[in-house]
Structure to design on (268 residues):
């Protein structure tokens, strides 16, 4: 009898602890989809885009599949910029190409051959203001901005000479006319709209990041770290997935790509 009462007490205690944890959790799981991918990104409407080799999937903010895109002749997708969801930039490093897709993942016009711009070795790319784009050219070690007429609009000095660093970027994004570039060995480097070097943030071993409301956010060791770009104050928030390949935040939702799933959470 006493054993039964004790066992019942333990069971109730465990249930209460579990309920308390759920209640205090800052996240509620909306949808979990079994899928593998290389990375994700999101647009300002809450749509999430998942890249896996040469394939691209687009989901709405509730995790429902909307559209897909793939191209066997362009190689793998090495860069994706959806800051303008009506003109999505897709970068193919191996073939030195940039394509634009519309909001239904249909191709807009002809692809841009970077070899025609003497940028065939470009290693990273992102969208820029006024329908332009940035690329990093490792041959000249310079950042190059190409305008909508496919003319060189801005070009930086030699980045290694400007920074004193051996530069090896993995990802870049423009925000408020500033260019942010992640370098896993050196941190996140910031350049102005003309390609002028501003500073480096000592945030190393980070491939992907995003800028939200003047805060830089990235995933590290089971948590989202946000850095205020004015005060440089850091905030750390633990997330349910302790191992993630890539994370994004849009509006009141958290998107997490793990090795096997795409999880979408709502902030409580």
């Amino acid at each position: 009898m006493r054993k039964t009462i004790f066992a019942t007490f333990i069971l109730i205690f465990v249930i209460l602890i579990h309920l308390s944890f759920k209640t205090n959790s800052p996240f509620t799981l909306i949808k979990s989809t079994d899928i593998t991918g290389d990375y994700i990104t999101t647009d300002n409407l809450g749509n999430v885009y998942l890249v896996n080799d040469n394939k691209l999937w687009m989901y709405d903010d509730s995790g429902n599949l909307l559209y897909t895109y793939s191209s066997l002749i362009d190689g793998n997708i090495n860069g994706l910029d959806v800051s303008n969801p009506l003109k999505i930039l897709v970068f193919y490093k191996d073939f030195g190409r940039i394509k634009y897709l519309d909001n239904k993942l249909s191709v807009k016009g002809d692809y841009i051959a970077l070899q025609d711009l003497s940028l065939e070795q470009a290693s990273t790319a992102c969208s820029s203001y006024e329908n332009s784009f940035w690329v990093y050219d490792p041959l000249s070690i310079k950042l190059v901005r190409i305008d909508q007429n496919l003319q060189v609009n801005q070009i930086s000095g030699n980045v290694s000479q400007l920074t004193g660093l051996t530069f090896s970027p993995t990802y870049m994004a423009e925000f408020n006319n500033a260019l942010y570039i992640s370098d896993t060995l050196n941190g996140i480097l910031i350049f102005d709209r003309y390609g002028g070097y501003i500073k480096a943030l000592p945030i190393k071993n980070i491939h992907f990041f995003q800028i939200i409301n003047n805060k830089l956010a990235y995933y590290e060791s089971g948590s989202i770290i946000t850095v205020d770009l004015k005060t440089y104050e850091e905030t750390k928030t633990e997330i349910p997935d302790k191992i993630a390949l890539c994370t994004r935040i849009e509006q009141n939702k958290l998107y997490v790509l793990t090795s096997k799933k795409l999880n979408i959470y709502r902030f409580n």
Residues 2-23 have pLDDT under 50 and may be disordered. The longest strand covers residues 27-34.
